[in-house]
Amino acid sequence: MNIYEQALAFKRKYPKTIAWRIKAHSKIAQMHINPDEKVKYVFACQKNHHSYEIFRTFIIVVTDKRIIVAQKRLIFGYLFISITSDMYNDLTLMMGILWGKVCIDTVKEVVMLSNIQKEALPEIETAISQTMMNLKIECAKPRRHESNY
Question: Whole-model pTM above 0.85?
Fold first, then answer.
């Protein structure tokens, strides 16, 4: 399944999530997937701090190597953020009456994802947390260097 199909499946499963132009945003994310990366989870949401801002839809792709945040701009260009395990700090979930928010804290910035149907939050948390924890464990393992002795 490609990124667009997974984003559409997420939107069908959680229809109260506010997301527009999923196909256009998915193309940007698909363009930046490396050949050795495997897509684990995809969801759509708004990237903003307030629930009343509903016109900043992004596609978030969790791969086995990083988190991709992508948006196709309306007229021209696009916005792309790549969050690798060394830049990732932690994840915070906030649930309101109608929607939930996911806050991804990185070394450089805080990525606030909002207007997500609150029933989707546990699924998103599991996908992001498991991937980042596995990557951090993998990076922490000492590598064996061959010596010439």
Answer: yes
